[in-house]
Amino acid sequence: MELPEKTKQKLVQMAIVKHPGTICIANYKGGVGKTTLTTMLGYYLAHKGKKVLLFDIDPQCSLSLAVGYDPEEVNKTDFTIYHLVKPNRWTTIKKVPFIKYIDDIPDTRAPKTLKIIKGSFDVDELDTIITQAIVQNAGAKDMLFNYCKNMLNVFSDYDYILIDCPPNKMYLTQAMLRASSYYITVTIPDVISVYGMPRLLKWVKQIPVNEKPKLLGCVLNGVNRAGGYEYGTVNQQQATERLYKSIRTDLDEKEKEVIENTPVLAHIPRLDSISKFLSQGDNKSAWYELSQTGSDQRSVSEIMINLINRIQKRIQKYAKD
Question: Which three-class secondary structure state does DSSP give residue 295?
């Protein structure tokens, strides 16, 4: 079914400026730490006094569970990402009660300025519904992309919107990447994960220039703090060199200028305290353990604060244009 001309014109008019604090956390490789990074960035930004909204668009709902939701509670509401981006919303954005989708973080120790739009275990089904809508309507893909961009702008009172993406190229992932101002890739320092990164970068490169998110850099997760070798892993320095070599050709000129020769924003160590923090549900006492330091080692808190400072500096550099 062809879209009416009036609808096409409305879509063009909806192509507005993006929310300046939207960041997708993405990689086509699963199990590399996207949820870990999204959760920790959210906590540390909020502890710095920023208003932060988390978006959980992964059908595994790992982000929602990490901040304290019980798996049985996640789908007991109509106010999840599943209901927020269903096709029947795309042309009725003015009627969507967005505020009802914003939830407090269950974790009693979380900053009050940290909020979430919960995930849904039905997001896999949602992608089927979205695909059917796009097959049936030639303009539906643009409607989805524009809806997501306008949707994120509704939350303009938040300093940052962090989106935890699934390891796939489903339409919702595509739409949120296109709707975001920036993205960060995450990998673990092993050969498979590092070489898997270019798939995401090459796809982002194909997005129209006026809609393409800017790369803030890559975070290496689960790094061996000794800096040496373990079975199946590569040295931090080697991982950094391989990473930059593999992505150099997929950066635009502005990205090369901002990122320079430091594509890696941070090295997050493999520590029990991080796993404990993520798994503690709605009473994260392990938060305080993240500020503890070992001999000659920076604490996780120091690493995260430095990471946030680098992210903010790169956003400022991009914003100068």
Answer: coil
d(CA 69, CA 39): 13
Alpha carbon distance 178, 250 (integer Å) = 17
Q: Which residues contact 217 (CB under 8 A, 6 or more apart)?
A: 184, 185, 259, 262, 263, 264, 265, 310, 311, 314
Looking at the predicted structure, is the pLDDT value of residue 64 above 90? yes
Distances from the Cα of 300 to the Cαs of 246, 283, 288, in angstroms?
A: 28, 19, 10
Element containing residue 308 per DSSP (H, E): helix 300-319
- Class for domain 18-319, per CATH? alpha beta
pLDDT of 5: 53
Q: In the predicted model, what is the mean pLDDT of residues 42-62?
A: 96
- Alpha helices for 57-161 (secondary structure H): 62-66, 71-74, 81-84, 123-136, 140-154
- What are the pLDDT digits (tens) for 278-303? 999 898 988 888 988 766 788 999 99
> What is the C-alpha end-to-end distance of the chain, expressed in Å?
40
Q: What share of the chain is helix, strand, coil (3-state, %, to 5)?
A: 50, 15, 40
Structure letter (DSSP) for residue 197: H
Query: What CA–CA distance (Å, rounded) separates 30 from 168?
Result: 9
**What residue spans define the domains of the chain?**
18-319
Are 55 and 81 within 8 A, CB to CB? yes
Q: Using a pLDDT cut of 70, give the percent of the chain over it.
A: 88
